[in-house]
Amino acid sequence: MPELPEVESLTRFLAEHLVGQSVERVFPVAVHALKTYDPPLTALQGQAFDGAARHGKFLDLRSGGLHLVLHLARAGWVRWSEAVPEAPPRPGKGPLALRVRLENGAGFDVTEAGTQKRLAIYLVTDPQLVPGIARLGPDPLAADFTEERLAALLADERRQVKGVLRDQSVLAGIGNAYSDEILHAARMSPYKLAAKLTSEETAQLYAALQATLAEAVERARGLPLKDLKAEKKSGLRVHGRTGEPCPVCGDTIREVSFHDSSLQYCPTCQTGGKPLADRRLSRLLK
């Protein structure tokens, strides 16, 4: 799933390639992905893009008074081409959801792989009209996001810190992968209750959060869009690496599975050497 660093890289790439370019045609292919109908997508035709922004995991492409907002969900992506076909794409069961062709012949496709279709496309006059954007918490890479602000957000949270980090209404842009990476860097159990963090633990978490996200953004800087997913995977230290040795201590990275996701962690670095309970596995063994 694209998270803050990948969407930030997409934003920078598209800002560089789109600003000043006018839209020739818009081809909506996957109607289920389109979440708004007024204004219609055809309202973009003839308009020039004048900016790109990121709101958490949302990509915002601005054209005049309109905002083409994309949420790529778990398996969505943006594919850039210097030569987009003029003919309308054929509707079907493929991954293509939206195609935008510019007047210079270049453009981009918005695609979604897999069977779980969660990609969302909006065309609005104000990004705050998108419900997911309206409920976002602060951006952890914003200049005004301080350690004190993080402490205030965590103070009343009676949930496990892993879930709090992933909650977009608390912090914008962090998902399953980078929450694992942040907690590993902070040497903190994902099951630790957020409200019970000491001031020292909050400082560790803040430093790990800032460093992990900033490093991921920097690694992706300047890469072609087609390479961003591979770069993300190669840069992860614990997430998706169950059974591999921890790069810090050498212990075996373990996993806890849930109904639709899993988390990875290092027992030595994060839980005092104790494996966390995997409730799904426990049920299977009964």
TrEMBL record:
<dbReference type="Pfam" id="PF06827">
    <property type="entry name" value="zf-FPG_IleRS"/>
</dbReference>
<keyword id="KW-0511">Multifunctional enzyme</keyword>
<dbReference type="InterPro" id="IPR010979">
    <property type="entry name" value="Ribosomal_uS13-like_H2TH"/>
</dbReference>
<keyword id="KW-0479">Metal-binding</keyword>
<dbReference type="InterPro" id="IPR015886">
    <property type="entry name" value="H2TH_FPG"/>
</dbReference>
<feature type="domain" description="Formamidopyrimidine-DNA glycosylase catalytic">
    <location>
        <begin position="2"/>
        <end position="119"/>
    </location>
</feature>
<keyword id="KW-0326">Glycosidase</keyword>
<dbReference type="Pfam" id="PF01149">
    <property type="entry name" value="Fapy_DNA_glyco"/>
</dbReference>
<keyword id="KW-0238">DNA-binding</keyword>
<dbReference type="InterPro" id="IPR012319">
    <property type="entry name" value="FPG_cat"/>
</dbReference>
<keyword id="KW-0227">DNA damage</keyword>
<dbReference type="Pfam" id="PF06831">
    <property type="entry name" value="H2TH"/>
</dbReference>
<keyword id="KW-0234">DNA repair</keyword>
<keyword id="KW-0378">Hydrolase</keyword>
<keyword id="KW-0862">Zinc</keyword>
<keyword id="KW-0456">Lyase</keyword>
<dbReference type="InterPro" id="IPR000214">
    <property type="entry name" value="Znf_DNA_glyclase/AP_lyase"/>
</dbReference>
<keyword id="KW-0863">Zinc-finger</keyword>
<dbReference type="InterPro" id="IPR035937">
    <property type="entry name" value="FPG_N"/>
</dbReference>
<dbReference type="InterPro" id="IPR010663">
    <property type="entry name" value="Znf_FPG/IleRS"/>
</dbReference>
<feature type="domain" description="FPG-type">
    <location>
        <begin position="237"/>
        <end position="271"/>
    </location>
</feature>
<protein>
    <submittedName>
        <fullName>Fpg/Nei family DNA glycosylase</fullName>
    </submittedName>
</protein>
<comment type="similarity">
    <text>Belongs to the FPG family.</text>
</comment>
